[in-house]
Amino acid sequence: MLHPWFAEARLVAARGGAWRRGRTLLAAAAAAIALPLSLRAWGGDAAVLAEALPRLIERLPLPFGLLAIAVAYAVARGRSIALDEYLRLGWWAAAPIEPSRATRSLILLAGLATLAAMAFAAAVLAACGGDRASLHAAYWVVDGGLALGAMLGLFAALRHRRHPAHRLREGARLPVFGLAWLDDARLPHLSDWQRREGVLRWRRGGHAWMIGAVLFGLPSSTGASSGIGVLLIAIALAWFSLILQACVAATLDADALLASTPRAPYRLAQAAWRYPGFAFVCAVAFVGIGAALLSLTWRAAPVLLAIMLVLSAPALLALRPVLHRSLSR
Length: 329
Fold this sequence. Notes:
Elements (H helix, E strand, L loop, with lengths): L4 H10 L2 H26 L2 H15 L1 H29 L9 H30 L3 H31 L1 H7 L19 H14 L4 H10 L6 H34 L9 H6 L1 H20 L7 H17 L2 H9 L1
Helix pairs in contact: 2-3, 2-5, 3-6, 4-5, 4-6, 4-9, 5-6, 8-10, 9-10, 10-12, 10-13
Organism: Lysobacter antibioticus
Protein name: Transmembrane protein
Keywords: Membrane, Transmembrane, Transmembrane helix
């Protein structure tokens, strides 16, 4: 019925691998539920602030519904395509497995993930509190948007498999500008690998939901310069966090590929920092232009850097195994 990858996933979960991979997500989910509960327990204006979210969703169903659809679509499509390509082109490619089993597995996983996301959204809204009518309306808007977006994302992922010409155009990994000077002689072409992985993820729409959330949150009275400034900051932060995730993924793959080769300590780290550093400089430059258009002072710099650090935290935490091995040598 299902792909044997499920048996492999159960073994990984039984050995604690699922907890190690998902503890950051679980901590973020617990914090999202605990924050409105804490505001309500604080009382006063804090409780009113928490209860305002369901009422705001009830009054503005279209922006929040479109945002839920966009987020669910991006996540479902990206995760489904990644798993489908792993099952068909990865370690399971040589196994005599019917393609229909992989399709059923994708549909089942997408359904379970959608139900989990809907339950989480309902828990957050319930933690916010408020009158019953507003909560019910918010449930329908958010959960309906998540379900619709997940279905569209799964359909797009399955269609992605059936149209190789579209996949080749979408999967073009050649960057617009060649930056050969970023390559390090110690590990040549690692930065090029990082750039190609980043280009692929960006062209697939990675982190587009961040930009969409900012656009939906802009009031209609926003001026042209202010809107452009906010958009530049949002694009720079979303792009850098995505590029950093791509760089970390390529670095981890390179570390696994070269695990049996003799190399000096810190060699991988010394060769892998160049492109992320260049991307950080570019992102800071665009954030600076956006801050200038918004007439922000230097006091906004720590806040913007903190936002960048929070968005980059998952990628940086994924580097711990490599850093631990480098320090232990």
